[in-house]
């Protein structure tokens, strides 16, 4: 709801409709060029298309309480979006068998297109009883058009020796219309190897050691190489002026190189399974939207301006205790997933700068050599004028626990999700402070009145820390219970089986975060700057009752 507003009136007359049409299609052509006892060569062609049309209609009548105080009461919004994605892949697949060895070789071409067209019309000052966007005192129109074409070449060779050794090598070349040079193909190699010991040292049912090294590219945005022009009226004459963001005609894709080592093994006839991975990721030619000096004529510009390193750990543990202990017919499976990562900007070709948020004194993100790219800063500085780090968007680690139980016809499964560390810029608290409605705005501690909200507002502009909060939490992500009815009941109904069940998502959350949810953001899922809270809708809690039948 809105403030001030009558929520019942808003629910009755506020119109917000969305209609989506979508069509998907694909075609596969597989032709054997030759086949012998020890080898074969196939041609495989795959093409597809994905089209959708989305129409949004929002209408707020001028008589609603939320509109009465506006200069132009009443709003009508109409948005139409068309999006078409196509892809074509042409491949040659060669398979070769030799005594104790097998080889698969693949080579091919890929072509993909992306076409986005969206028109947004916003009308204000609506004529009473009218809903059309042209029946208003003023209108604003925004048209967003984006096209992209990507081309790729690749080959890969995979080989196995017996049941123990696996090795692969490949190379891929990509070029995109979003690159500065649309004919300069970027090549990315990859390799992988693993060795499977089988039973080992009397402890492992199976042990596999693995290694992989690969490179890939992240293409720039379609607009990054262009300096757009905006219309302007100067002395009654229509003209063009450059926009505030300067394009880069030589923009290149980011290049990511990742190396990982891992081990997978199982113990005691499947009682436990473990998958462990250590990885290092290095990104060069970071695509950055940087501040520019005023003398350049632009405020911002796109640059390949730095390098970044990320180190991480991934661990998966699976347990089936019923392999070891008879629990009287109860089957129990447990699975834990853990991962952590730490990133650092190792090189920056431009001056350090702040990014994201609404203003530095409200909290923003600092891009600086030697710092985490998700570090949060504010008004606080050191004696030398450098920024103090107030927090970091990136968590220390994430861990989840999945438990699944089955006892006769009853099945129970639930997932506990825990995030430790990480911070958000909680501007929802600031909004509540400004309205004097924060839960702890005024507290009575031992008969002494403490004006927490007033103290926070009094320091605003010089102290940002009170609005930087930890986003650690523990959540019951999902839970489900199902019951399979006795076979005689399903047989009488002519069914193979009949199950009834209950499931829920996001039903419980424990956190010290004072906002509505530590998982939401004003700006959605962003690599940097995705932890600004201005009270967007939290994740919805959902409950389902299910009925499953088999024939």
From TrEMBL:
<dbReference type="GO" id="GO:0009279">
    <property type="term" value="C:cell outer membrane"/>
</dbReference>
<keyword id="KW-0472">Membrane</keyword>
<protein>
    <recommendedName>
        <fullName>TonB-dependent receptor-like beta-barrel domain-containing protein</fullName>
    </recommendedName>
</protein>
<keyword id="KW-0998">Cell outer membrane</keyword>
<dbReference type="InterPro" id="IPR036942">
    <property type="entry name" value="Beta-barrel_TonB_sf"/>
</dbReference>
């Amino acid at each position: 709801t809105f403030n001030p507003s009558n929520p019942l009136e808003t629910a009755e007359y506020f119109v917000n409709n969305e209609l989506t049409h979508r069509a998907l299609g694909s075609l596969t052509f597989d032709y054997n060029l030759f086949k012998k006892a020890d080898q074969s060569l196939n041609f495989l062609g795959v093409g597809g298309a994905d089209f959708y049309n989305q129409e949004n209609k929002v209408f707020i009548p001028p008589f609603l309480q939320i509109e009465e105080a506006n200069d132009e009461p009443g709003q009508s919004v109409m948005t139409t979006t068309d999006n078409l994605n196509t892809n074509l892949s042409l491949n040659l697949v060669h398979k070769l068998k030799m005594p104790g060895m097998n080889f698969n070789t693949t080579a091919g071409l890929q072509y993909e297109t992306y076409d986005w067209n969206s028109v947004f019309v916003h009308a204000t000052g609506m004529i009473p009883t009218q809903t059309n966007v042209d029946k208003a005192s003023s209108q604003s129109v925004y048209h967003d058009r984006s096209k992209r074409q990507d081309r790729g070449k690749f080959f890969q060779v995979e080989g196995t020796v017996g049941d123990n050794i696996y090795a692969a090598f490949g190379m891929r070349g990509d070029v995109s219309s979003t690159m500065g040079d649309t004919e300069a193909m970027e090549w990315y190699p990859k390799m992988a190897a693993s060795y499977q010991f089988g039973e080992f040292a009397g402890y492992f049912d199976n042990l596999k050691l693995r290694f992989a090294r690969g490179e890939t590219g992240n293409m720039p945005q379609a607009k990054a190489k262009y300096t757009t022009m905006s219309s302007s009226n100067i002395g009654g004459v229509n003209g063009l002026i450059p926009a505030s963001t300067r394009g880069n005609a030589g923009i290149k894709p980011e290049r990511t190189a990742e190396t990982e080592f891992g081990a997978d093994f199982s113990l005691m006839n499947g009682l436990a399974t473990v998958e462990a991975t250590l990885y290092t990721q290095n990104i060069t030619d970071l695509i950055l939207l940087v501040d520019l000096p005023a003398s350049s004529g632009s405020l911002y510009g796109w640059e390949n301006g730095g390098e970044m390193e990320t180190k991480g750990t991934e661990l998966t543990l699976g347990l089936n205790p019923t392999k070891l202990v008879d629990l009287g017919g109860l089957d129990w499976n447990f699975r834990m997933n853990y991962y952590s990562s730490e990133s650092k900007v190792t090189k920056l070709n431009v001056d350090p700068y702040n990014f994201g948020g609404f203003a530095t004194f409200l909290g923003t993100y600092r891009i600086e050599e030697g710092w985490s790219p998700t570090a949060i800063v504010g008004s606080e500085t050191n004696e030398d004028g450098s920024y103090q780090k107030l927090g970091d968007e990136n968590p220390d680690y994430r861990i989840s626990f999945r438990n699944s139980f089955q006892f006769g016809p009853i099945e129970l499964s639930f997932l506990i999700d825990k995030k430790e560390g990480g911070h958000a810029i909680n501007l929802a608290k600031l909004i509540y402070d400004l309205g004097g409605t924060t839960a702890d705005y005024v507290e009575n501690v031992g008969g002494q009145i403490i004006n927490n909200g007033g103290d926070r507002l009094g320091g605003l502009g010089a102290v940002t820390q009170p609005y930087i909060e930890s986003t650690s939490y523990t959540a019951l992500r999902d839970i489900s219970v199902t019951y399979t009815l006795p076979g005689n009941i399903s047989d009488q109904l002519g069914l193979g089986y009949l199950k009834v069940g209950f499931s829920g998502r996001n039903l419980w959350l424990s956190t010290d975060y004072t906002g509505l949810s530590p998982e939401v953001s004003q700006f959605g899922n962003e690599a940097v700057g995705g932890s600004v809270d201005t009270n967007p809708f939290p994740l919805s809690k959902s409950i389902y009752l299910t009925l499953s039948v088999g024939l």
